Amino acid sequence: MEAGNLHELEGLIEHTAPVHAGSFLFRQGDPFQHLAVIRLGTVKTYSIDREGREQTLGFHMPGDILGLGAIDEERHPCNAVALDTVTLCRLPFRVAASLSARMPQLQAKLFRLLSRDIARATQLSCNNTADERLAAFLIGMADRMASRGYSASRWQLTMSRMDIASYLRLAPETLSRMLRRFQEEGLVALEGREVEVRGRERLQAMAAAEVGLDQARLEAA
Asked: What's the confidence (pLDDT) of residue 120?
């Protein structure tokens, strides 16, 4: 951005105090007021259906924006909970909308983030096999870590396997069996929450590589 625009934007951003693991950033049905950018930590978003069942919708990392899904109805359609210590920058949405009309770079970034969220939701709604969904998750995590300057082959999961299973629309025991098989086939190595990707080319082929690469490009932009 131009220096003047950047200075104006920085003056309107609110830096929040750290939020600890298990704390809610917002709840399903809360009024929507701010867009929030994650500065540190990981956030899980999930919804609760009428039968009280939880469905994990996404895992959000530094640089991701929370709140885009609430723009239409002006209420958050899901819950957002910290998985570890999280800090945020917040910007009132009405201010962000006004600024984006004058700052093409800000507007383009918001459009890219909306497009990325739609692409992820579309990928999960497709009739992919369980293996393809798990491979896409692993490749997606690897690319997201790499875009943030971390190792693309080895990282720590902040989310539980139960959360991952919910996100991938799998039963927890099915996910456990698949992970054991992926290890036996030399695709990954697991130790506690530490993941090492060893068969990236095979995983990428299973995951429809263009999806993962497009997501990484969107996040790096």
From this structure: 67
